[in-house]
Amino acid sequence: MKFVKSAAIAACGLAMFGLAGVFTGCSDSDSSSDAVAAGSSDVQSFDVASCNSDIDAGSVYALEQNKEGLVEYFKALSDGDLQGAQQKGASVKSSYGNILAGNPANCEAQVGYALASIANIVNNDGLKALIDTLRGNGTIETGDNYSLYKISSEQTAQVVVGSRALAKEASGKSVIVRVQDAIGENLLPVTDTAITYLTNVVRNGNVTIQYNGGSRPVELDNGEFAPALGALYLMRALLVGVASVNVDITENGSFRWIETLDSMDISNYKTNPGVKKLLSLMDADNSFGTIKDNWAEAYGAIPNMLDSAITYVQLGLQYGINEAANGLATQMNDVYVVGNDEDADVSVSDLQMVIDSLNFFKNALHGDMEFKLGERSIVVNLGKFFKITNFKKYLPYYKIVDPADWYKDLPGSFWEEGLDGNSFGASELEFMAENNVASTSGPIDNRSAYIVDKKYYFDDEAADGLMVMVYGYLGSYTYADAAYDVVANGCDVTLSLMDYYVPSYYEMKDSLILKKYAYTISPEFCKVEDGVVKFLKTRGSTRPNMFYFTDAKGNKTASVIELDNFDSVEELKQVIIFPDVTFGGVFPKMTTDELWDWVGAFMEDDDYDDDDYYYDYYQSGYDESYGYDYDYDY
Asked: b/e string for 566-602 if b means 16 or more Cβ within 10 A?
């Protein structure tokens, strides 16, 4: 029907008003209920008078004005006018509060106050400070107070990491902790207030509210109130989930350790602050990724909240089905019309199908359910997932290796004379040179350096030794490159410009320089033994041995870099051992063999996707006579 599009504005505003809290922050400080204590698994309700239509004459006009006020609030919010939304939210909530004070049982006032409570979350003092930080007028370079609403997604991470204002406030709390605190202290109380009032209205069963839809009035009833209540329970479950998990990755309230990872290489990994922090987060005893002790009970109750969310959505849909029995008699002004004739927006059978489908998910929250995934199936108990308070307990057995030992006793490594491309020292030299690339033509960006065996580059068996090729971007699509001879004297290395190297961008030949031409290979990669200089080399991976897998007793089964030599899932199964393949009962019928069958299936899918990508990319120019094989192994 033609009025559905405009009338849906009212339904969307009511059914989704709970989600506004997720995007805008915290409640006002004078909400109707106290802050929810951490760990509270139940809605913090309070006594509410049974709702009816009684109202004093002086409040009738105020109710109508408040309806328009809520419309103006959501319009301001959608237009990005936060200041206007703050003003209107405060005004409407205050007005509904006054109406309830004189008419505590009025159903329409209770619905309005529930909605206004959510709307007014933009006026919390703590939230305003956070919003001001995000809407500030700093620069990307400083990060402080720069508006995250005005920059690209690529810049957002850079600003968050670099911003002292976002990372840490005067109290020493990071923005992550501030948001989680706000959920328990502000968002959950106001959500519970809205749930309490709206539950009271839904239980009445006969409440209707007229809304001016423009060309005609629109009537809201339990067909909208019940799904809106379901949305609030969903919102509560999401908020509890966000507040429950230890996700603070700051170091002393700062994100700046992340920046140091950009400069990590084989020459400084032992002292890199980012490496130290990253390894601490991976440690099994670190609280990162665990459920906070004082939130475990609330987190475990999330399935019940989701059950309530589904139940109230079903109740609203069933209300529409029941109304369909009367035809248009009770649906003339409804947001949507249920029936089986041409005037209907949705059929009875369609709504019943949705209700039945939702039953499947309700059952999955409280018991074992079998899910079909293509030709495979898996039994899942979603409720058990929310009983897990430490997800690391279910990771394979592993141990972190101290950075000082990353390159000790590497599989496939050996000591040999001569600095060549298989030497770890060559990789170290590559990184050190890259950090010293400069330009005589001004600032340089995207610098890089590569170790190359000269005989491969010049296609000349007589050419011997290594060279370092350096590249740089000088701006305005201007690139430069140069090459340096590598001369080793023991563990000391000197680089000298190769005059006979022809740069790709020959007009820029003299633009690139090195700020440093002499380097010393680290003792772990170069040593003098009985007067003979030897370098650590490898026939395998040059990646560091950051951790290794163990069995249940802590005995090493394989290092992470040894996995490169494994060709089958069966081999992986022997060295990667899970303490509990059911993951705490989430997959109650899972066995070790079945788990690795799933791993193998996913690996095959990835291989197929890679093959398909290369085929799609190259097929237009593919010629079988050349024998091209697009299944490259990178």
From this structure: eeebeebbebbbbeeebbbbbbeebeeeebbeeeeee
